Amino acid sequence: MVVSEKNSILIIGFGVSGRAAAHFFSEKGCKIFVSDSRDESRLSSDERAFLQKWCHGFECGGHSSRFLEDVDAVFISPG
Fold first, then answer.
1. pLDDT at residue 5, as a whole number
2. How far is Cα 75 from Cα 32, in angstroms, rounded to an integer?
3. Residue 74's pLDDT is what?
4. Nearest to residue 31, comparing CAs of 64, 70, 65?
5. How far apart are CA 18 and CA 36, in angstroms?
6. 70 by DSSP, 3-state: which?
7. Which of 27, 23, 24, 30 is nearest to 5 (CA)?
8. Would you give the DSSP letter of residue 40?
9. In the sheet where 8-12 sits, what is the strand order?
10. Burial class, 57, CB count within 10 angstroms (exposed 0-12 / middle 13-18 / buried 19+)
11. Exposed / middle / buried, residue 64 (Cβ in 10 Å: 0-12, 13-18, 19+)
12. What DSSP state is assigned to residue 55?
């Protein structure tokens, strides 16, 4: 897959690898969606700021299927 601004990417897990992937794909101009199992209250202020600035959507507290229909690729963070 060639990564371009036309792509929509779902990142599952917003730990170290998930944040790095979100940063990489956002620099490529992709639409980023993030799903993280942590409760939103456990996100750092930097993580919240990143999600609000760069992501087209995010969810916390579990993984639903709501973003799967609208993305071109899924990146599953190993942790």
1. 78
2. 10
3. 95
4. 70
5. 9
6. helix
7. 30
8. G
9. 55-60, 31-36, 8-12, 73-76
10. middle
11. exposed
12. E
